[in-house]
């Protein structure tokens, strides 16, 4: 399967307009944003766990990173509340689920295969003091990519350029970027060499951003 797999193209997806699709596990549904592959895939997805649902134990051969969008995500390593950012690098394993139910934004098979850095962070706790109406948290940075989180004041400008492409997920609020009105759940991908030029709406904006990573996009090794 290929979905939004041409990384030279700008893509905007309002995830709240997508139908939920069943996964192989009962009670776990998903909204696919981009994908290369079948059940083993380089994938960017919104995943919803119904209360008391879980996935079977598995190893993330290509790594996984995710944000808890609502509820509480759980596995044998602990409870992960809303606002948590997690990186589980290649070779890590777990049995994910949720007693109260949860929704996560998850990216699979997008790691350096030698990466072994595993962590969890509350994104808001990492925010620095705002500059020109934009508070920024650097969540992760390596030779391939930079992952950040931003709180943008109402009406403030948010500008970002990156040679290796830009990907953004709206966590809350609204902003306008290149004529597109983005809201909670909107996902934006800007190709290599592009720039993000946005203005936050009247409620401000909360945005997760990854830059530099698109040159490394490729199908999973199976």
From TrEMBL:
SUPFAM superfamilies: RmlC-like cupins
ChrR-like cupin domain ranges (all copies): 9-111
Pfam families xref list: Cupin_7 (PF12973)
Stored InterPro entries: ChrR-like_cupin_dom (IPR025979), RmlC-like_jellyroll (IPR014710), RmlC_Cupin_sf (IPR011051)
Protein name as it appears in the record: Cupin
Species in which this protein is naturally found: Ruegeria profundi
């Amino acid at each position: 399967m290929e979905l939004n797999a041409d990384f030279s193209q700008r893509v905007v997806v309002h995830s709240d307009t997508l139908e939920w699709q069943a996964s192989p596990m009962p009670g776990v549904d998903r909204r696919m944003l981009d994908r290369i592959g079948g059940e083993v895939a380089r994938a960017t997805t919104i995943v919803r766990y119904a209360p008391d649902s879980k996935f079977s134990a598995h190893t993330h051969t290509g790594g996984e990173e995710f944000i808890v969008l609502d509820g509480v995500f759980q596995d044998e390593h602990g409870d992960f509340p809303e606002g948590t950012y997690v990186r589980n690098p290649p070779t890590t394993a777990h049995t994910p689920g949720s007693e109260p139910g949860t929704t996560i934004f998850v990216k699979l098979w997008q790691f350096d295969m030698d990466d072994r850095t595993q962590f969890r962070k509350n994104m808001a706790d990492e925010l620095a003091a705002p500059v020109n109406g934009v508070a920024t948290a650097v969540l992760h940075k390596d030779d391939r990519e930079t992952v950040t989180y931003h709180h943008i004041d109402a009406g403030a400008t948010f500008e970002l350029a990156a040679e290796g492409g830009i990907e953004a997920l709206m966590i809350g609020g609204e902003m306008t970027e290149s004529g597109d009105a983005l809201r909670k759940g909107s996902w934006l991908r800007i190709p290599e060499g592009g720039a993000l030029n946005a203005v936050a709406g009247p409620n401000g904006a909360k945005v997760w951003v990854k830059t530099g990573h698109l040159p490394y996009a490729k199908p999973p090794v199976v």
